[in-house]
Amino acid sequence: MMTHPSVTIGIPVYNGEACLDKMLASICAQSFQDMEILVSDNASTDSTPEIIARWAAKDKRIRVHRQPENVGARNNFIWLLENAAAPWMKFAAHDDMLTTGYVEALYGLAKAHPEARLIAASVQLIKPDGARYKNTPFPVEINEARGFVRTKLLLKEVRSGWFYGLFRRGALKEAWYAAERFKYVWGQDLLVLLPFLLSGAVVGTPDATFYQLDTGVSAARYKPKALPEQAHMYFSYLYACFRALWLSPLTLAQKTALVPQMIIYTGYNCWKLRRLVLFTLRAPFMPIKRFFAPPRKNKIIKNYSQSLRLSVEWLFTPPTLTAMATIWKAQA
Q: How do 166-168 and 88-91 pair as beta strands?
């Protein structure tokens, strides 16, 4: 085990036997050597512990912790964040892979840009059958842009795969705990990224690639299904975005100019506002349809009614307006 590594690779895993072996092979084959590989097994019930033990016997940089019980995905990430030994940190999902020079390229940029707090790379999405699609190279014009132009570019070009870039660990902890106010797992990765985007402290390279397996499991497991919960999640996410905007180092004029962008950012990464509005507008008419709908649709009618009630509550006490008022008051 390394005592003072430059980089920590944090791997949270739960029942990852299907892909874990390939991912650990990808990490251990990195050309960059000055790193620790910290694995937190969230009380897996499959062969994950055996796979980890086998790799730990091969590579002494691997440090393993097994949670005594399942602590949830979020707390497993937090354990890694709190127990990492290096000043720079990268998370690695159990089903993703990296190009061989990934960590070396990102750490080189980190040393060349001491002002940066996040180093990102290109993102290549992969289907469960192994087919590649939607390759997104890191836009090099971001590195050349300055000030507010850079911030707008970052908000436009950000990808969820940047969450698996290389972070200055202190900044990552600060952003993570700020995003903890948002109580949903779905979408939290892009909330963690938001302070980095707003501060402009992001550089990247198209010469390293993060291969992200798109299985749809996260959406199925963590994305709310009922309309009332979707509405609550939307406005909670929007409030978190406005709060991050308020706390950013931007000027009042720049913050005001980015208000529409925060709504777009929420719609892109959480739920489309027009969808929630459409269902809300339709909700008052659903009781009329009750007399014509078969019994199996009563549950749908109830969900629409709940959505209307919740949406009205939010519209009359919107956290978005509260956040905006706070911004103006703080700048006055």
A: antiparallel
Report which DSSP code applies to 291.
T
Residues 6+ apart with CB under 8 A from 31: 100, 101, 103, 104
User: What is the full per-residue pLDDT of the chain (332 aa) written as tens digits?
Assistant: 567 899 999 999 999 998 899 999 999 999 999 999 999 999 999 999 999 999 999 999 999 999 999 998 889 999 999 999 999 999 999 888 999 999 999 999 999 999 999 999 999 998 888 888 889 999 999 999 999 999 999 999 999 899 999 999 999 999 999 888 787 777 788 899 999 999 999 999 999 999 998 876 666 676 777 777 777 778 888 888 899 999 999 999 999 999 988 888 887 776 555 555 555 555 554 444 444 444 444 444 444 455 445 545 444 445 545 555 554 555 44
Nearest to 252 by CA among 153, 201, 150, 328: 328
Q: What is d(CA 188, CA 83) in angstroms, rounded to the nearest whole number?
A: 21
Write b or e for each residue in 68-84: b if 16 or more Cβ atoms lie within 10 A of its Cβ, otherwise e.
Answer: eeebebbebbbbbbeeb
The amino acid at residue 8 is T
What token pair was written down for 231? 């509405």
Residue closest to 134 by CA, chosen among 108, 153, 109, 160: 160
Contact 237, 191 (CB under 8 A): yes
User: Smallest Cα–Cα separation from 241: which of 233, 253, 252, 230?
Assistant: 233
Helix, strand, coil shares of the chain, percent, nearest 5, are 55, 15, 30
Provide the greatest CA pair distance for the chain. 70
Listed residue (218, 28, 14, 244) closest to 236, CA to CA: 244
**Residue holding tokens 């009922």?**
226
CA 108 – CA 110 distance, rounded (Å): 5
Token readout for 180 is: 């903890």
DSSP 8-class letter at 215: -
Q: Which of 37, 33, 42 shows the shortest CA–CA distance to 15? A: 42
pTM: 0.80
Query: In sequence order, what are the residues at sequence separation of 6 or more whose Cβ sits closer than 8 angstroms to the Cβ of residue 307?
Result: 227, 228, 230, 231, 276, 279, 280, 283
